[in-house]
Every structure is written in C-alpha cells, then in structure tokens.
Amino acid sequence: MTASSADSSPVVSVLGAGSWGTALALHAAREGLETRLWTRSAEHCAEMRAQQRNGRYLKDASFPATLSVTDDLAEAIREATLVILAIPSHGMREAVRRVATALEELKAAGRATTPMYLIAAKGVEVDSLKTMADVLEDELPAEHHPRVAVLGGPSFAAEVAAGQPTAVVIASQERKVAETIQRLLSGEHLRVYVSDDVLGVELGGAFKNVIALAAGVCDGAGLGQNTRAALITRGLAEITRMSLALGAHPATLAGLAGLGDLVLTCTGGLSRNRRVGLALGQGRKLAEILQEMEMVAEGVKNTLSAQRLAAREGVEMPITAMMHAILYEDRSVQHAVAGLMQRDLKPERG
Fold it and tell me: What angle do CA 194, 199, 200 make, to 5 degrees?
C-alpha cells in the first residue's frame, strides 16, 4: 500500500464510467470499499449523481452509499490505494497521460500518491503494437511501473453488476501487487486468481475479441454450430501461437484469460464483439453497425493490431486474416469463409 493509505481504509478509483468500469466500481463499493467512479463528461457525472445509477450503461444497478462519482481526475485518484483503468484500449494512452499530469498536480500540492494500477481494458495499440501495460510504462513515472497489474477472464459487465458468480485473473510482475489487489477485490460474487504472466493475460484478452467477431459472422451467416465449435478451437490455436511467439506462458492461454474469455465472448449474448459479427454476417456494413452501438467493440481495432503483429512476427493467424479481409478489404463473408476453408491441408498440431 501507499504511505497515504497505510493508516486508512483502502480507496478504489475507477477511471471510465462505461458498463465495465461501472460494474467494477459497483463490485468494489459493495465489498465496503470507498470507491470513486470517474467520467470525463461533466454531464454524465451530473446524471449519475442525480439518478444514483449509471442510466446510460447499467440502468438497473443502484449505487451503494460507498460509491461516489466525479469528473475531477485529480480528486478521483487522490490518496487512492488502487486505480482501475477501465478505458477503451484506443483511448488508454491519452487517459494515462492525464493521470500522470494529475499525479504531478497532487505532488506539487503536497498530496503525492503512488497507487497500484489495474488495467481493465483488452487491446493492443494499433500504431505502436504495444500492450496496455507497455502504454502505462511509457506514460507513468518510473516508480509507478512495478505497481501495474492487468485483469482478464470471462466477465460480462452486466453479470458482474448483478452479482452473478464470476472468476477472473489478475497478473502482475510483482506478486505482492497481484496478491494485494486479489485480497481487495475478492468477494462473495467474485473469485480472483493471480498470475505473473502479464503478457499472456493481455494478449488472450485482446485477441479473443477478433475470434468473437468471426464467431458472430459465422452465426449471422447461418453456418451452424459445427462451424462455431471449430472456429473457437482453431481460434484458440492461433491466439496461442501468437502469444507464445511474443513470450506468453501456454498455461495462461488454457486458463481464464485465454480459453475462458474466448468461449464466453464467442457464445454469450452480451458480447459486443459477437453482436458486431452477427450483423456483419447478416450483410450489414461495419460503419452502420458501429454508428448504432453505444459501447465500444474492441475487436474491430484489435483485428488491425493482430494482423500487423502476425505480419511482423511471421505467425500464421488465418481467422484473423479472414476478419481483416471482411472489415478492411471489403471481402464478402462468403468469399472470406471459402478462403479460410480452402487453405492448404496440414496436421492439427504444428
């Protein structure tokens, strides 16, 4: 813990008031932790304060008394024990830069804080091909780097908010950091495991979104359950190939952050990525689909990241290539699927 939090009750700050950030804030507050939920929108902040709920994203979940809302970033992270970053991956760098500025402001005011950080976004930067942990190392002061952890596993926001039993994994290079966050967030409805494989947890969470898009495409095109099962299985194979090439541990991809998250996102009705895929499979255009969505489908940008990483590393990712062709090369679903099925024959392993 930080010096400022050692003699007081833990404070959890959640940055990002979308569905996932709100669900995590609700969970922390229900566990009796003082919890602050930050939104960059003053209007959204006022709405949530007035309604005592997040009417835009999780309207059925009332805020506990231990949950407050703010649009002041410095106030949100002041004396925080844990800062949860529930910002979409494409906006993470800008948000962390703002956090770094707020940290300087607090330090100048004699209210320095060195919290732990939990990354709750799943993605890889398109231009830099850096993970979110890499982004935090780029933007935060060096003394904060050992205090970074990442969150993975099968966890729909609506079900976490509703108190449905959920299991997740938290990874950090510093085991004490992972275990401290584990103790903070574990509760009756959330079981938290720990890992030291930061890269594996991040890559499993990012790349499964691409496979979920593909699963939705196949379901939307009416290709059947055989197709879906094959897609999930071979999707896990290509996620694992890429992750191992970059240095992840194979057991991570067979666990909650890999197989668990993949199965949920490819089959669950609450999956945003699968819903986008369904609409694509039914013949709708991507721009039209995204315009109607209120929430971010990370798989659309993650497809670009995965395709570029595959090219850089020389790793075969045929399902990712299929989704890239559909999303960015104007390939029809029928032609893309046919190309996938007609690839050269080969052994299952290797």
Answer: 70
Residue-wise burial string across 305-326, b where 16 or more C-beta atoms lie within 10 A, e elsewhere: bbbebbeeeebebbbbbbbbbb
Catalytic residue among 59, 107, 130, 208: 208
Closest CA to 87 of 137, 124, 122, 35: 122
3-state secondary structure of 39: coil
Single-letter amino acid, residue 186 = S
Residue for token digits 């024959």?
A: 345
CATH code given to domain 3-196: 3.40.50.720
Tokens linked to 175: 């085991």
DSSP assignment string, 108-130: HTT-----EEEE----B-TTT--
Rg over CA atoms, the chain:
20
Report the DSSP beta bridge partners of residue 194.
170
Answer whether 10's CB lies under 8 Å from 34's CB.
yes
- pLDDT tens-digit map of 146-162: 999 999 999 999 999 99
Contact 80, 12 (CB under 8 A): yes
Of all residues in the chain, what percent are helix, strand and coil, respectively (each to 5)? Answer: 55, 15, 30
Q: Residue length, the chain?
A: 350
Is 176 marked active-site?
A: no
User: Domain 200-341's class?
Assistant: mainly alpha
Spatial distance between the Cα atoms of 207 and 122, rounded to a whole number of angstroms: 8
pLDDT in tens, 264-318: 999 999 999 999 999 999 999 988 898 887 667 788 999 999 999 999 999 999 9
210-239 core/surface letters (b: 16 or more CB in 10 A; e: else):
bbbbbbbbbbbbebeeebbeebbebbbbbb
Looking at residue 64, what DSSP letter applies? P
Q: Which of 56, 190, 202 is nearest to 121 (CA)?
A: 202
d(CA 334, CA 146): 47
In the chain, domain spans:
3-196, 200-341
Buried b (16+ CB within 10 A) or exposed e, 152-188: bbbbbbebbbeeeebebbbbbbeeebbebbbebbeee
